[in-house]
Input
Amino acid sequence: MRLVNTSIKRPVGVIMIVLAILAMGFISFRSLPVDLYPDIDLPIAVVATQYDDAAPQEVEELVTKQVEDSVGTIEGVDSIQSQSQPGSSLVMIMFSMDTDLDQAMLDVRESVDQVKGFLPDSASDPSVLRFDPQQLPVMWIGLTGADQSTLQNLAENEVEPLFSRQSGVGSVDIEGGQSEEVQVVLDDERLSQYGLTTQDVMDSVRAANQSASLGVIDRGTQELQLRMPGKYESLDEIRDTHIQTGEGDFLRLADVATVERTTTDQNQQTLVNGEQAVVTSILKQTDANTVSVSDEIIASLDDVRTNLPEEVSIDVVFDTAEFIRMSIDSVFQNILIGAAFAVLILLLFLKSFRATLVIGLSIPIAVITAFSLMYFAGETVNILTMGGLALGIGMMVDSSIVILEHIYTYRERGYSIKEAARLGASEIAPAVIASTTTTLVVFLPIVFVEGIASEIFTPLALTVAFALIASLAASVTLIPMLSSKLLTKAVDQGGRRYWFDRFLDRVINVYQKALRGVLRFRKTTILTTLVLIVASVFMIPQLGAAFIPEADQGQIEISVETPSGTNFDTTRDVTDRVNTILEDDEDVIESNFVTVGGGGAAGGGMAAGGGSSNTASYMVQLVPEGERDRTTDEVMQDWNDQTEDIAGADITVSAMGASISGGSPVQIQITGDDYDTLQQLGDQFVQIISEVDGVHNPTTSAEESRPEMQITLDRDVASEYGLTQQQVMGQLQMNMMGQVATQFRNDGEELNVRVMTPEDSRDTIEDIRNMNVQAPTGAMLTLKDIAELEQVEGPTTLTRQNQERQINVTSDVLDRDLGSVTTDIEEALSGLDMPDGYDYSMGGEAQDMQNAFQDLAIALVFSIFLVYAVMAVQFENFLHPFTIMFSLPATIVGIVFGLFVTGLPFSIPAFIGVIMLAGIVVNNAIVLVDYINILREKGKERYEAVLEAGGNRLRPILMTTLTTVLGMIPLSIGLGQGAEAQQPLAVVIIFGLTVSMLFTLLLIPVVYTIFDDLSAKFTKRKE
Output
């Protein structure tokens, strides 16, 4: 080939090109963003609407349904989910994966604009946003060492502004602190004595805290601005505020109220490692990189510390990038170990350091070139793309091995080293290109198939393809050139490694004896193979199924929920008991923080909705896996067993993995019309699935009804006193929650001045009944004179799926595979008698797994067809490729055996491994069948040709198989952090390729002879 000749004639040019590629690769690698998983742009739009003071039923009927109807006809909509909560509506529109989200967002905005006019007047304009369910904070930074108010001020004034300026930071949220305000607590008796109302006080305070510009006057040649200052400058000035009574007398505010600067009521508490703290959570921008943002924040911490008091500490509580860094480092180590194994195999077979160096150079060239191609393709460095390089580390030398073997063949025939390099590489290059192409084409369907499996593994497929293309280019250019310069003599048949040649000769002899045996008993060989294949197929259900193995980050989340309506102090008492459990296991805990009364330790972004006093959430980071004697699941199970003894709360302990799926492992969607019936069904489903082995922490989304006291105004009675519902509502809000009258600025701070009634006047229901309401006429009434108070219960959240009411029953999976648990759940629910109009379906990770398997099955079929097409072009024959394809069914024996031995379920990574095997296992058969045909063309009898081809091709087949298999050994045993996602893939390829090699060496010659006989009979009949 011209390319081979040119590379030999112009070695300096080849070397310069290689150096340029290496330099570009290093630059590209440093520029590539680093993340745990590839970026998955899920096409989800969110429509959020506020409808203050409306019950969930009203929000659902007047807002949610209107929005659902408007967006339901948009092209590409896959499903619509909605939540109607008191005062707010949230509608999530999920589009199919191939939807252009930019255009879809425009369509959603247009549809929502058309429905705005039909919404209630008091409802806000709907906001249309993109939503990423995986958008969680990158880091949590804790401030400790001072009171909550001081920490809050430091977080707002020193920490948050600096963090927000860092590159890639989207937002900074602060939780756990307390803000200060000026509280004006009224004395009801004194107000009544002077005939004043709370509104009179509000108006006086607001009017007294004003400054105004009064114009300009001339004074000589100057213009003077007239200004009357009146802003409060101290608390004493607030106390001295004058209030005019109805008789025209003036009082001081201090005569009818107490004025104090104090902290707001605390309905939230955050503890970091048991110490009062304020925590800032950092969310990255949509297109930003997790590790880069983490590096920016860590670098800025020193600047923050210089602006903080000495007693205040600021430390990283959780950093999600830390696990990413450890995972990428582990994959790099696996790549190096795999490369070392591959080089040792080459050294063992080639018996030459120079020959090993020539082939070994293919590995760094392929890897670094792949980085350049990844950069231009817009990929990131993550555990899947790097895992792809680790998986392909052995395959990168296959082409070079075949090229070098053929060069040595010509060298042994007496050709000069340059002629041997030119002729050997040129002759075998087409076969090498075809062989590599069969491996590459299997990735095409993965790239073009739709669904989450394609989104996740397309980067892996591209990375492996880039590396193989680079190694192929190196094998047909660099290898011949280096061979012509470095390999000055033929292969040394003696030397200190002669023992291996003798061992290899024995292996060849044993193989040829076995080959004679299977050729003699062809029917028995075929029957035995079929029995093994059928037995393996029947074993598949025993393996179980899973989505994608989650990386064990050593993080545990604990959610605490007391009965709806429980106050903050009671919830905090429950968390104190949970804290005691954690203190007993402090040797396995690196850090933890808990938020009591809202927010959420693991919250952030849109997922962190407003909390309530009956909830608390923990995030616990365990010490590294090597420093503890229990796995994360074992620690989680221990804590779960202990928290079950805590009465009065629903406590859920779950591991926080790097999940790619947006849903829970088990999610049962129950639909129907009546919310109470759905709630009963949800409780029934929870009881049923709790009996299934492997189900962990089953819960229902149907929250407990929240008790509330409804105040129903008697409009007829109220109107007699000149009162409207709005006036009564305003006075009650003022009495219960207070009202901000103005702001007080002092020493660079701006505090709210809140006018409120004493707390002891609104403690009980009877206090509320006797609460004063003043009529416009001046008459003072009690609330019970004009309204009825009744305690009722109602839903806190109404959920809908595709415009039907729905609740979700969700569960984690522990100590079993997802597929087996899902099958048992479906069997347990199969006999359930559902009411008319009610139905259920499986969703979540189980549904994602099923869809992904369907997509990958289609990809596998197309991959096999493409492999056959490539071989048909190579052989210019339809029969020989068909013969070679018989190496594929036998692969299932190795796949099932490998997964069974290692105890791994069949998962999406394992399925990807099966698809990769479709292109890998045929290479050995191609080498064997091709050489049989060459020998027969030279006049060899078929039987002798098969025996000789098997003996001659055993060496390169062993070399290529061993380099590929040993290169994947580190991944197959799960070395390092984050190896869980690649382990099933590596196991499938190792066992599948190894067993397939054995079948290729024995079964393919048998199949070859059978088809050759059939072809001969057909030819004779035709003649």
Summary: Residues 708 and 792 are 6 Å apart (CA to CA). The chain has 33 helices and 30 strands. Residues 490-497, 602-611 have pLDDT under 50 and may be disordered.
